[in-house]
Design a protein that fits this description.
The complex is a heterodimer of chains A (241) and B (203).
Chain A (H helix, E strand, L loop, with lengths): L56 H8 L10 H10 L6 H11 L20 H26 L5 H28 L5 H26 L4 H25 L1
Helix pairs in contact in A: 4-5, 6-7
Chain B lengths: L22 H14 L6 E3 H11 L4 H11 L6 E3 H15 L3 H7 L1 H8 L7 E2 H6 L1 H4 L3 H11 L6 E2 L1 H45 L1
Helix pairs in contact in B: 2-3, 5-10
Chain lengths: 241, 203
């Protein structure tokens, strides 16, 4: 590991003027404002024989946020599944499901299945849309039950509790999805950590040969690598069980 | 240069128009950078940088150290995330054959990177040294200095360099158009025989 030296005679010794950072057009701010939030069309220019849909990390990204299988189903199927599981929602709810099924293209979960990173902001729109619809649904279910005859009060109590159960089944999905907004997907972290481990292990050999085993930087790197390995094995252990 | 298949960078991609990474990709890249930042300085020293590039690219040691010296514009012996991000964009531009577009879109930063001595002029030596980064062929380099050295000092200032990037971009777009048109006419030619066969069968 060397400190900065002059590389060849005649070259400037001191620091050069900093190059302009990569800027968006008409953007005065440096790096933080450089990134593009718009739709990311796939360049498709990876070697043609290389990427398959299963290996494309963009698929991993979208799939990782949909780890609960029922997240990626149309709303009508959710209603059908709930029915199949024995929780009859009642005719009003079923009507709601049938009505909403026709509007799935507006922002259903299945849009996530295309494997392309279309628009980073659409996710938040979908989230808002879904939360609003969940509220409306709850309201419509409860409201519809209030309108029924008194002698069906027992039936409405049962169905409202069942509908609240079915809603609560899907709320954890939303919470999980919200949490994932702030974290990178686990498969992506795994790829990064594995690669970092390989790189750092080779760097450790260079440190040992360059500055010796007893240097504090070598020891720091060694401890860091051990920490990474422990983290990785812990995660693998969790996945296995 | 080809990125190692299956490496983390291999999965990233640039926005076609601006040749930059998306927010999501930058976030992932930042995590990756922090994973490599073993000493918690928000930097990579030359050893870590070398092993990183050795792992993900097919560059040799001399090329890697040339890139390191180019990016270490503060002469600190370490690379920060800004420089790392620029490097990744250059790598991805090369991987996806977007060099012309990248140089056009980011002519100022590229010019300042190539301007090693800070003289606001780029000589042929600078270009030649970084040929492997931007994939500028010898013939193009000769044309560059022949056609765009308006001041005649055998070096390019920023304006001359910018003209070069515009010219290269135009050529690139024309090439793209020609390829598209070739792609359109080729399937049409293939279709005609089938149509003929079908019609002959009908009658």
């Amino acid at each position: 590991m060397t400190r900065r030296r002059s590389q060849s005679p005649g070259r400037a010794q001191g620091p050069r003027p900093q190059p302009a950072r990569l800027l968006l057009p008409q953007s005065p701010r440096p790096l933080a404002a450089l990134v593009v939030c718009g739709p990311q069309a796939s360049l498709g220019s990876h070697d043609s024989d290389d990427s398959s849909p299963d290996n494309d990390i963009r698929n991993l990204w979208t799939r990782a946020t949909l780890s609960q299988p029922k997240l990626n189903v149309p709303r009508s199927k959710i209603c059908d599944d709930s029915d199949a599981e024995g929780s009859s929602l009642g005719s009003k709810t079923r009507q709601w499901c049938n009505g909403k099924a026709g509007r799935e293209s507006d922002g259903g979960w299945e849009e996530w299945d295309d494997g392309e990173d279309k628009d980073g902001f659409r996710r938040e729109d979908l989230h808002g849309h879904l939360s609003l619809e969940m509220e409306l649904r709850r309201g419509s279910i409860l409201g519809s039950h209030l309108e029924e005859d008194v002698d069906s009060e027992t039936e409405s109590e049962v169905s409202s509790s069942e509908s609240s159960i079915s809603i609560s089944k899907h709320t954890p999905h939303r919470a999980y999805w919200i949490e994932q907004q702030n974290r990178l997907p686990l498969p992506l972290m795994e790829v990064m950590e594995n690669e970092a481990l390989e790189i750092l292990t080779k760097a450790l050999w260079s440190y040992r040969s360059g500055i010796g085993r007893d240097h504090f930087l070598t020891k720091q790197l060694q401890r860091y690598i051990e920490g990474l390995k422990r983290r990785r094995s812990k995660r693998l252990h969790l996945v296995a069980y | 240069m080809k990125l190692k298949q299956g490496s983390f960078l291999w999965y990233l991609y640039l926005d076609k128009l601006y040749c930059l990474l998306s927010v999501r990709n930058v976030k992932a890249l930042l995590e990756y950078f922090h994973l490599l930042d073993v000493h918690h300085n928000n930097t990579l020293n030359d050893v870590l940088f070398y092993h990183f590039l050795r792992h993900v690219t097919s560059w040799k040691r001399t090329q890697i150290m040339i890139v390191f010296n180019m990016l270490d514009w503060n002469a600190m012996g370490e690379i920060g995330f800004d420089q790392f991000y620029m490097l990744v964009c250059i790598l991805l531009a090369q991987q996806n054959h977007l060099e012309e577009q990248f140089i056009f879109r980011h002519s100022r930063p590229v010019f300042e990177l190539l301007d090693l001595d800070g003289e606001l002029r780029i000589g042929a030596d600078n270009f030649h040294m970084y040929n492997f980064l931007f994939n500028i062929k010898k013939q193009e380099l000769r044309e560059l200095y022949h056609d765009f050295d308006i001041t005649g000092d055998r070096r390019l200032n920023y304006k001359e360099f910018k003209l070069f990037t515009i010219f290269t971009m135009d050529k690139y777009q024309e090439k793209q158009k020609a390829e598209k048109e070739q792609g359109k006419t080729a399937p049409l030619k293939k279709k005609r025989p089938h149509r003929f066969i079908l019609s002959s069968k009908l009658f």
